């Protein structure tokens, strides 16, 4: 699917004077294929001038067709993946990953990677002990702490008796006490984050067991980021603690992929000394050698270097890394957060300038890789709407979904193989699931994406007219359309079907007429809108007018489409996100996996 640039503005039905071959005549001049991937057009967001036929006053129908012969990109089956932050050790939520409700929610987003990493990765130490009650730190109200810890131990003993997936049903009182503890720890974690000073964190063998159990039961493949800040006097990586963790994981036959460190460009601010790209590359080669010595991980995947936003100094670090270890990693990774969560406003999520900031970063990363390792896969890890932990009622609201869905569409259209969402569950407000284990709007958006979108990306062709732009005014693309082959895992649709997903940032509805290969086909609509009086700030959503909620702890709701009759114009409400499955297109690109 390709990003539709800034000239999809209006949507009145085409008048009778429109010639039948309008699309065929106009498509050569207006067909859009991968506009972001063409450097000569990357910065051109001005409306294309088109003559208006008689009787049309600046409005017309948007005509849409898709190239069904071959995909323009093919991304990973695990394209939409998840992250858990090590802070869940501090605040206690790791002990509750065996919850049936959490496992059900995670299973809904499988297949996917589960990356265990974040700001505290480089302060994490592995300790091979089994008794969590004696090794766990962190504050808790004195009047319940002892009983609470005993409850955790009893729960662990019960889980140990289970075979296969270990699933727990935690009593409500136990969850209530955990939320109290987590609320207190939240203040500690925020203080650390804002001061950029982090305390050491211990991961016990018991905790690693719980983490792996959650990933395995949920159908997720665990990626574990090792501490890179354990350094020797000569600034080389001290691998002793990592080796202990690797040996334990191998003894349990855990299927894990690996990383080393998190945002190495920030190490100077964290520990007062930097690790340059060349040294980091040597550290990765050292880690690869360790993995090859352990039979279980001799062929394990290794990803990195997980740099931050690609500014000049970060690009220099990446270049140094790629010169030394470009062939050592299976994919190159970086992070992106759109805005500072401490100053974000709901209107920020509607700005096309903000949505487009990611495109420039993609080009910078691709330029480095094309120089050193052409064809190497690129992953965006740790992506979130806002940094600094996000903002309540904003980065966890319906409005944040515009950024998230556009991120998915843009990255897929540019061939980024995997995007890892920060976070599935944590103390901040960028997560998909809250601390009551209720799914938030971005979870439902992700679930729809997983159910409907396949890995094959298709090119879109658009024809249509627009209002004449005002002098000096740049018209930006507030209507964004992407197309993929429908997911092969969705047995409600035969192979050859196509799924469109559309973001309408306009404050008015827009109309789209399917043309060419999509003409006169039955369409299933999945319209996602905020539910309740909070509007864009809402933490609840409705699908085709019906509120979405879990049926019970073990059951997700059925995602029911609204069938549209063949040939019907698609009407896109203002400030909404929607998916449209065009059935029985028999698209050549989509018939085979």
UniProtKB/TrEMBL annotation:
InterPro entries assigned to the protein according to its UniProt record, in alphabetical order: GH, Glyco_hydro_79
Gene3D superfamilies linked: Glycosidases
Gene Ontology biological process terms in this record: extracellular matrix organization
Coiled coil: none
MF terms (GO), sorted A to Z: hydrolase activity, acting on glycosyl bonds
Record-level GO cellular component terms: extracellular matrix; extracellular space; membrane
Source organism superkingdom: Eukaryota
Family: Belongs to the glycosyl hydrolase 79 family.
Protein name (record): HPSE2 protein
